[in-house]
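Appendix B. Raw example, untouched.
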Amino acid sequence: MKIELKGNWRTKKVWLNGKVLTPKHSQKSSKYRSDDFSWGDGGGGGSSQLALAILLKLADKYTAILNHELFKRDIIIKLPKRNFIYRFDITSYIRSGSFLF
């Protein structure tokens, strides 16, 4: 499945396949309480919140919680600290062996 992530550095807004993501839903499933997303950093709470929010849209809750730190490490912290558009195949990523089930 092809995924497009788009981020606005100034506003910290992120879109997944054209739909705005918010931290609200992922805050219910995690210990992170970041009000903003972050990316391209050392992997703080905002990056973890973003990774979890993305995976909660793409997988069941258990799989998302189990894998969001790996996804953050592999994808989110490697995004540039500026506006971005990033396209990738989530199926290929899962098959690469990083994902836990």
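End of appendix B.
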